[in-house]
Amino acid sequence: MGCAGFTCSKHCLCALNILYVMVSLLLVGIAAWGKWLGLVSSFQVVGGLIGVGVFLFFVALAGLIGAMKHHQVLLFFYMIVLFLVFVVQLSVSCACLAINREQQDHLLEVGWNNSQSTQRDVEKSLNCCSFRHVDYNTTCTATCFPNHSCIGLFFSFTEILGVWLTYRYRNQKDPRANPSAFL
């Protein structure tokens, strides 16, 4: 039968949800670690990361329990939430990749000018001074290096994989169940 049956779908869905649990715990841990070390002083950023981590943890937990027990309602809820998260994350990732260099610079400058704490955090974590031009009256000698990343786009495709696996697994009959029972 290979990897096309009920057991394989169940194990793949469980493995994917365990990965999501680890990512959620990593998000919460990194947010707390960044706040504890003083790398991030913005409570909104730390709260947002912890909120996303907790949300992902509960969604992954629902998917894991649904996969382990072949629970139709939990799997349906998990499939819908994961698809909505996929749509939002794919949209944001594509929008981030679609803006040009001038638009990026404008957005960064607006964010830079809005908050002194953001300026201090960026200067401290990136080891750079000021936004556009280095002030030679200060002691900072490092430069900033851009970091382009497609992690959000990649992660959104694992979510659509989860939706597909859940849809497939929901519609399979448990071979150990009563043959006359409906799914």
TrEMBL record:
It is found in: Membrane. It is a multi-pass membrane protein. Keywords: Membrane, Transmembrane, Transmembrane helix. It comes from the Eukaryota. Its main location: membrane. The keyword Manganese does not apply. GO terms for cellular component: membrane. This is Tetraspanin 13b. Coiled coil: none annotated. The chain crosses the membrane at residues 12-33, 45-66, 73-92.
